[in-house]
């Protein structure tokens, strides 16, 4: 796959569309329409996903939608499935790479604690988060943010316009991707090689914990500040991405429950 098309898919949180007849400041960022449409979540604990409370074989939960379907990539297969005594979101990508996400509006200054768990059965051979033509990873949790479009420089604006022209989908202001890498050290922040408004944060690396459930707790406010050297706007979507198309391999993961909460809520 061409590097440009790979970049545009990794950037896109599809379904974040805008109105083509509005001024560019209204349509340049997909996150603008979400902020306008949704009220902020107010609870101490925001249930982003409770896959464990569903039944295996049930439809995907309301509000969760696939993104990246206009990119030309084969779609990753997502379904609610049982694994042992657990119900989770199963992802299977055979030379494929589309995501699944939910639009949600959360203030990361109030509810910054992101918790989730996943199970990864195998690494994607030859994937390398630092190399633009092999930037798959075994699993990704994707958090998209709104922001002030006037702060974007000429290059960022041009890339946003190009992405929308090619995929038909606008992009949010910024994205954090929490990833399971092959070799990159844990807690490394990796700039996306194609677009400066994406940062990868390595939360797991190597094969040591393959085949087991692994839980994570991150402070997205602190992570965003470290990654972008600024304060974030509202979170506008949370999703997952299981991606295997670059090295022509298979990726198979399970994603568990996802929450955002205030410090000390649990």
Give structural notes.
The protein has a single domain, classed as Jelly Rolls (Sandwich), CATH 2.60.120. Helix content is 17%, strand content 35%. The protein is built from five helices and 13 strands. A hairpin with a 2-residue loop joins strand 3 and strand 4. The N and C termini lie far apart (44 Å).
Topology, element by element:
Blueprint: H1 3-11, H2 24-27, H3 30-37, E1 45-49, E2 64-67, E3 77-83, E4 86-94, E5 99-106, E6 113-120, E7 139-145, H4 154-167, E8 174-181, E9 189-191, E10 198-205, E11 213-219, H5 220-228, E12 235-241, E13 250-261
Parallel strand pairs: 8-10
Antiparallel strand pairs: 1-13, 2-5, 3-4, 4-13, 5-12, 6-11, 6-13, 7-8, 7-12, 9-10
Pick out its properties.
266 residues; alpha+beta; Jelly Rolls; 7-stranded mixed beta sheet; 6-stranded antiparallel beta sheet; 13 strands; 17% helix; globular; disordered N terminus
Count of spatially separate domains: 1
CATH level 1 class label: Mainly Beta
The CATH fourth-level homologous superfamily: Galactose-binding domain-like
Radius of gyration: 17 Å
Strand order of the largest sheet: 2-5-12-7-8-10-9
The sequence of SSEs as H and E is: HHHEEEEEEEHEEEEHEE
State which percent range the strand residues make up: 25-35%
Q: How many strand segments?
A: 13
Residues in helix, %: 10-25%
CATH topology: Jelly Rolls
Number of helices: 5
Gap from first CA to last CA: 44 Å
Task: Estimate the mean pLDDT confidence.
Answer: 85
Largest sheet: 7 strands, mixed
């Amino acid at each position: 796959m061409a590097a440009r098309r790979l970049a545009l898919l990794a950037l896109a949180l599809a379904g974040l569309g805008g109105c083509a007849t509005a001024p560019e400041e209204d349509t340049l960022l997909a996150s603008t329409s979400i902020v306008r449409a949704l009220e902020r979540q107010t609870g101490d604990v925001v249930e982003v996903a409770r896959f464990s409370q569903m039944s295996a074989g049930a439809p995907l939960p309301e509000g969760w939608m696939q993104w990246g379907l206009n990119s030309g990539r084969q779609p990753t297969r997502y379904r609610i499935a049982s694994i042992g005594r657990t119900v989770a979101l199963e992802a299977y990508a055979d030379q494929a790479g589309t995501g699944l996400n939910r639009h949600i509006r959360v203030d990361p200054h109030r509810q910054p604690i992101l918790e989730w768990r996943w199970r990864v059965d195998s690494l994607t051979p030859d994937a390398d988060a630092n190399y633009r033509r092999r930037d798959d990873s075994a699993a990704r949790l994707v958090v998209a943010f709104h922001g002030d479009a006037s702060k974007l420089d000429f290059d960022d604006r041009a890339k946003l316009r190009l992405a929308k022209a090619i995929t038909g989908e606008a992009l949010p202001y910024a994205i954090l991707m929490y990833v399971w890498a092959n070799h990159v050290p844990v807690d490394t922040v990796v700039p996306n090689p194609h677009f400066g408004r994406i940062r990868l944060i390595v939360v797991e690396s190597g094969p040591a914990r393959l085949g087991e459930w692994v839980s994570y707790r991150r402070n997205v406010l602190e992570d965003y500040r470290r990654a972008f050297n600024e304060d974030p706007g509202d979170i506008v979507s949370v999703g997952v991405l299981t991606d295997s198309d670059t090295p022509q391999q298979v990726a198979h993961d399970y994603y568990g429950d996802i929450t955002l909460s205030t410090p000390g809520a649990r």
